[in-house]
Amino acid sequence: MPWNLPCDIKMFANITKGHPVIMGRKTYESIIRKLGHPLAGRMNIVLTRQKNYSVKGVGVVANSLTEALRLAETQESSNEIFIIGGEKVYKDFLPYTEKMYLTKIQASFYGDSFFPIFNEKEWEVIQGETQCDKGIYFTFFVYKKRLLEIS
C-alpha cells in the first residue's frame, strides 16, 4: 500500500485477526518485505500458479480459488474468510463475495494495483465511518451484497 494510515491498519488487524486471509503471491511477498513475517494470528493462504512456491511461518500455498477456500474452511474461525489482495485475487473472488470491508481514501497515491470496479447497485452500505489520520480523510465502509429481487 502506498499510504500509511495507522487507524486503517488497526481496523484491518482487528477485523481479520483470528480468521483465514487469502492473498496473491505478490501481496504475500510485500507483507514479508514490510513486516519480515506473515500476518500474525491468522492463517495466511497464498494463492499462486507457481506449483513449487513455499511460504514460511503461518502460511500455506493454494494453486486455485477452490483450493484456497477449502484450506480456509478447515479453520475453526472460517465463518469469515478475508480476501486481502492483490488486484487479480480481488477480481477473481468478487463474484462470490457476500460482504466487503472497504476503505476509500480521499487522496491520490501512485499505485500499480487497484481494487476492481464493482456495481454499487448490487451492494448495500451497512456501515460507513469517516476518519482523519495524518491529515488524510478516509471512509471505512462495510458493504453487504443485495439479494436479487424476483419480480
Describe, in short, the structure shown.
With 151 residues, this protein is of the alpha/beta class. The protein has helices at residues 6-16, 25-35, 65-73, 87-93; strands spanning 21-24, 44-47, 59-62, 82-83, 99-105, 123-133, 136-145.
Explain what the structure shows.
- The protein starts with 5 loop residues before the first helix and ends in a 6-residue tail after the last strand.
- The strands form 2 sheets. The protein has a 4-stranded parallel β-sheet. It has a 3-stranded antiparallel β-sheet with strand order 5-7-6, with helices on one face.
- The protein contains 4 helices and 7 strands, in the order αβαββαβαβββ.
- The protein is an alpha/beta fold.
- It has one domain (6-145): Dihydrofolate Reductase, subunit A (3-Layer(aba) Sandwich).
- The chain is globular.
Keywords summarizing the entry:
Dihydrofolate Reductase, subunit A, single chain, alpha/beta, 151 residues, three-stranded antiparallel beta sheet, four-stranded parallel beta sheet
Produce the secondary structure layout.
Layout: H1 6-16, E1 21-24, H2 25-35, E2 44-47, E3 59-62, H3 65-73, E4 82-83, H4 87-93, E5 99-105, E6 123-133, E7 136-145
Parallel strand pairs: 1-2, 1-4, 2-3
Antiparallel strand pairs: 5-7, 6-7
Family: Belongs to the dihydrofolate reductase family.
Protein name: dihydrofolate reductase
Domain DHFR: 1-145
Which sheet architecture does the biggest sheet show?
A: 4 strands, parallel
Mean pLDDT: 89
Strand content range: 25-35%
Q: State the separation between the terminal residues, measured CA to CA.
A: 43 Å
Shape label: globular
Number of helices: 4
Protein name: dihydrofolate reductase
Organism: Candidatus Terrybacteria bacterium RIFCSPHIGHO2_02_41_19
GO molecular function, one term: dihydrofolate reductase activity
Keywords: NADP, One-carbon metabolism, Oxidoreductase
